[in-house]
Specification:
Blueprint lengths: L9 E4 L2 H13 L3 E4 L19 H13 L2 E4 L2 H9 L5 E2 L21 E6 L8 H13 L4 E6 L7 H8 L6 E5 L3 H10 L2 E4 L8 H8 L4 E4 L2 H6 L5 E3 L4 H12 L2 H17 L2 H16 L7
Parallel strand pairs: 1-2, 2-3, 3-4, 5-6, 5-8, 6-7, 8-9, 9-10
Helix pairs in contact: 1-2, 4-9, 7-10
Length: 294
């Protein structure tokens, strides 16, 4: 379903092109909706990442969000960042198609424990923290294996770090995998790990939750929202804390199962159909057009 099909309403991510569209909408008298689902409200110069980094970027985000009739975000975490920048938002999580994920588990509980990370290999995802946490887990003689799925944009630097940490037998890089292949990875995982420096939400967390996999990582995006009932999170960039959190979860299957249930229930309640309906309701509010029965 594409809720924009029936509404004359511009809807764009809050990047610089969105500013031009918001201006056009204002001139034409057409309400615009801006969704901030990325780095609109952060500045991470060490990465570098974030649209609060330069004057031009900050101005573009500020104008786009001020010109829009509504600004939406996916998580309470992103909502708090927006509020700190003086932007009022509505929270509409962008859900996943549950039919792509089995909602169950094929895991037997045998060792080694399988850790899974799905994301493009880039600086924001902070694979270095993940690998250093893995080194600590191996030093503690914990039987773990890490599967990393995602396109490499760092020209082998992360693989080189894994070799330098003597993790060749503990980490497998699977490269880019199409969506239909991800189900098998989720089914084989005991724990999904996302150590990102920033996430506005984290679609892979929804995929893991829909697959019944407990999640752990940095206190950003949905990980922040779900902690402690539905997830375990620690401060970004802290491999010691991340390793400790992983070790505690692997030692506590009841806690993992409970968190997985809570996250799965939330994900089912905010699936792709729910998202389409929520945006249709918003467009109806902004345009005054009646909604056809769903």
């Amino acid at each position: 379903r594409r809720p924009t099909d029936r509404y004359r309403c511009r809807h764009e991510p809050a990047r610089i092109p969105a500013l031009r569209r918001a201006l056009a909408g204002r001139r034409l008298g057409v309400p615009s909706v801006v969704t901030c689902d990325s780095g609109e409200f952060v500045s991470l110069p060490s990465v570098p990442y974030g649209l609060q980094t330069t004057w031009r970027q900050r101005t573009a985000v500020s104008l786009a969000t001020r010109l829009a009739r509504a600004v939406t975000v996916c998580s309470s975490y992103q909502q708090s960042l927006a509020s700190a920048c003086g932007v009022n938002t509505r929270r509409i999580p962008i859900g996943v198609d549950l039919a792509r994920y089995n909602g169950g588990s094929a895991r037997s509980g045998s060792t080694p424990f399988r850790l899974l990370h799905v994301a493009s290999i880039n600086a924001v995802k902070d694979h270095a923290t993940l690998l250093h946490a893995m080194r600590r887990l191996r030093d503690a003689a914990l039987p773990v294996h890490l599967d990393i799925v995602g396109e490499d944009t760092l020209q082998g630097a992360v693989q080189g770090l894994a070799r330098s940490l003597d993790l060749d037998d503990a980490v497998t890089f699977h490269g880019f995998q199409p969506t239909e292949q991800l189900r098998g990875f989720y089914q084989a995982a005991d724990l999904f790990v996302l150590p990102s420096r920033h996430e506005a939400a984290g679609v892979v967390l929804l995929e893991a939750a829909a697959s019944g996999v407990p999640v752990v990582g940095s206190a950003v995006g949905y990980l922040s929202d779900w902690t402690p009932e539905g997830a375990t999170s620690v401060a970004p960039g802290d491999p010691v804390a991340l390793a400790h959190a992983i070790e505690e979860l692997l030692a506590n299957p009841e806690r993992r199962a409970q968190q997985a249930r809570v996250a799965a229930e939330w994900t089912r309640a905010h699936n792709a159909d729910w998202t389409a309906g929520a945006f249709e309701d918003l467009y109806h509010e902004l345009t005054g057009r009646p909604i056809q029965p769903r």
